[in-house]
Specification:
With 148 residues, this protein is an alpha+beta fold. It contains two helices and six strands. It has a six-stranded antiparallel β-sheet with strand order 1-2-4-5-6-3.
Amino acid sequence: MKLFADMDDPRQPDIAQFELEEWIDSSPFERLLGLKIERSADGEAVLSMPFTVKLANGGGVMHGGAMTALADTAVAMAIKSLLPSGTNFATTGLTMEFLAPVISGVVYAYAGVKNTGERSFEGACELRGEDRRIYARFNSVFKLARQQ
């Protein structure tokens, strides 16, 4: 058995075909999770993601990976609101503190960023429920690609 056999499958689409329609838009992965960009401007962003069974872990609560993806994407959208279209950047570090389980409803990500150097940003995000309960806190570092 070959691990990751599908990576060599010629039927797999070329990554270049996944260009976003807008600079601030959801990628195919983010759409799979059901993420919605509510607002993104001036270094801040608000995103939402509904709890669904497909996002649950074996214990019936929202998977921590889904929650982390929501927070990471919210910070990325806050960064995009400050940069020219087409700028390349990536997460280089992150921490997530889980405070309460998500078992239903919609989770909202409230993110903000600050530029901490020529090529770096620090981001912070809180994940909250519809009742404003805090489910998690997220912190991250992003770096711009060289020559950006």
